[in-house]
Amino acid sequence: MFIADYSAKNIYDEMFSNEGFPRKSYDFVKTKMESLGGIELLKRSSSAERALMSLGITFTLYGDGGEQERIMPFDVIPRIVPSEEWINIEKGLKQRILALNLFLNDIYSERKILKDKIIPSEIIDSSTGYLKQCMGLKPPKDIWIHITGTDLVRDGAGAFHVLEDNLRCPSGVSYVLENREVMKRTFPELFEKLNIRQVYDYPYHLRSMLENLTDVSDPVIAVWTPGVYNSAYYEHSFLAQKMGVYLVEGTDLVVENHKVYMKTTKGLRKVDVVYRRIDDTFMDPTSFREDSLLGVKGIFEAYKRGNVALANAPGTGVADDKVIYSYVPKIIKYYLGEDPIIPNVPTYLCSEGPDLKFVLENIHNLVVKAANGAGGYGMIIGPKSTKQEQEDFKELIKADPRNYIAQPVLNLSTVPTLISDKIESRHVDLRPFILYGKDIYVMPGGLTRVALRKGSLVVNSSQGGGSKDTWVLG
After folding, report:
1. Less Cβ crowding at N or C end of the chain, within 10 Å?
2. Closest to 164 in 3D by CA, of 361, 328, 353
3. What does the pLDDT average to over 356-373?
4. Which residue ranges form the domains of the chain, and what is each CATH number?
5. What pTM was computed for the model?
């Protein structure tokens, strides 16, 4: 088992060029791993897996067999991004977040972009992420999107594209931090030799961003989790611990006189900032879903009165609707007067007649997704599907065209990956995390998700995916 035997044909590979030569950024890593040999690499991989298991890095998988607690699979061969590429990615992500924040501020106030017919108003009003209750809302410091996870993919030529925006409760950053710690223990010699940008200070930046949302000195901050049965509960508790703030559930909070308090053994304590990891409509049964057992009565009114700050702001979900995604290049142009630095993947809107016809006739060659689907669910990959699955999905599209988009099948870039006792190519994407506070901070790297099933393009952990450490070279 040697990386020298590895080959990836007709696909952009992160480590090797089409001619089979290692890319400059991977020179030292390739040489080092070959010098270790297969047996030592397997030993270090097993050691890394045991370390992750001891840390208890889990997610909950929901399926026909009920809930299953799983360890996130991890691969020890890193994904490396050269510094010159990262500079462009960072600029592009900052540009995108600035524009989307201006967009949210606009559609919940003057709605100029709709009046100017850049986006049809019915597209906004029909989005499940659009909350009428947020009209006229002014979030602290005029920031709506505080934490973002933007999914990036490479095309066949190696150019990065934005696949989707995650602006509600993006998850995965805990895996980034723990993967890095495990890799430093597993390959200390690589970290001594290479100038790899740090990610360990993300909790510091996250706490600073949350503190920026209030003018209270030494504010009380809480991470609001739906509870231990949530798939990302590990991350909620992890971030609360790393920031040195409270971890609370809805039953721990109460609103009195339009102010939010936390129940403690010494009585009620006022909470100034809440990093919520709970969906908008479950947040407050008096303002949104009456049947929510997770929410806190009156917290939305307390927020509107400026008595508590929430991150992300309620209503941000409209901006990561996959139909709205297709308009982001126009949104960037409208608010910033610029072309997108990182382009979108070409997208067909099933709500538009010509696009709908094309999608129905070519579904066997397309990826079709639900506008608000997540986790690899609510989608079909045409070339990987059966005739019957295609026909069934066509009926779903025709019943609700607004709820579906389609994109060409992208051959996502690959990275050498240790599979059993062999090194094989596997497809990857990249989710950088962006924080919007006094300025915009982009974590150097992010979560590289890898499709561990041979030939699969679905990288989600719920669909059998794993992760890699992402190294941005200084």
Report:
1. C
2. 328
3. 93
4. 201-311 (3.40.50.11290), 348-408 (3.30.1490.270)
5. 0.93
